[in-house]
Amino acid sequence: MDEPYTFSGGRADLVKQQGVVERDRLLRSLKGRRFERIRFPGADAVVVRVPDDAAIPPPSVLDMLNRKRPMRIFPVGDGAHLVKWLHIGDETLPEGHSLEAGGWDHLHCSACNRHILAGRTFWQTAFGSCFHLCPYCYRRLHQLR
Questions:
Q1: CA 1 and chain centroid, separation
Q2: CB of 6 within 8 A of CB of 47?
Q3: Chain-wide mean pLDDT for the chain?
Q4: Which pairs with CB-CB distance under 8 Å and at least 24 residues apart come from 6-14?
């Protein structure tokens, strides 16, 4: 049976089990791929404050959305949000943006979405599309048949 269901724990158990099915589906698709073990050093983040009443986000935020680059959005309590994304090398900061040293302090496992904190190791695909696996999912990858 592909999708395990339970009626004992209600919706929370069903959602968790569906997440496990999705995780294992991704891991099976990665079987045979080569991975490299990497220690995530953390990185700097570009930060921009976006007022809640802004008609549209700043062009830089729209660009990140269009390019599907990961970003994080944090409410700051004064009618605005901070939007952060990974600073890449020589990227020039647009007006109104700042650089936060160490502001990109974790990655997410591509399979289970666990945090991979700065200073910790993870496994990344060596070629092709980039996937990050936490140590748990990397072990699970090798246990799947």
A1: 30
A2: no
A3: 85
A4: none
